[in-house]
Amino acid sequence: MFVYEPALLMIGSEWYVILQAFVSALIGTTCLAASLAGYFVGPATRVQRVMLFAAALLLIKPDWITDLIWLALLAHCGRDAARRPQCAGRAARLSRGAQTR
Questions:
Q1: Is the pLDDT of residue 50 over 60?
Q2: Among 4, 21, 52, 65, which is most exposed with the fewest C-beta within 10 angstroms?
Q3: Which of 55 and 63 is assigned the larger pLDDT?
Q4: Count of alpha carbons within 13 angstroms of residue 40, beta-carbon side
């Protein structure tokens, strides 16, 4: 990743360029790990895993255009994960547990 974005070395760049490169690299590594492990917010479907892997590849070279694309992919994965029945059931169990206390 240092080859594609020298700002990750924190040498000779403005602070906002370094911050953008760092955040992109951090989220890209998380997306890669989630796609390989098969777990995002809950168990990831095959489509979500492919989208997470694509987002990770887009984050190798931090740029504003690729950042917008991976943000859309990640938002779509998060929305799909929140709509899955496992997540809804877990949220209901958690809210019932909070009410009994």
A1: yes
A2: 65
A3: 55
A4: 28
Q: How many CA atoms lie within 13 A of 34 on its CB side?
A: 28
How confident is the model over 35-55, as a mean pLDDT?
Answer: 85
The pLDDT of 47-65, averaged and rounded, is 83
Residue 94 lies in a domain: yes
Residues 6+ apart with CB under 8 A from 69: 55, 58
Residue 1 lies in a domain: no
Tell me how far apart the alpha carbons of residues 49 and 32 are, in angstroms, rounded to a whole number: 9
Q: Is 30 exposed, middle or buried (0-12, 13-18, 19+ CB in 10 A)?
A: middle
77: domain range? 6-100
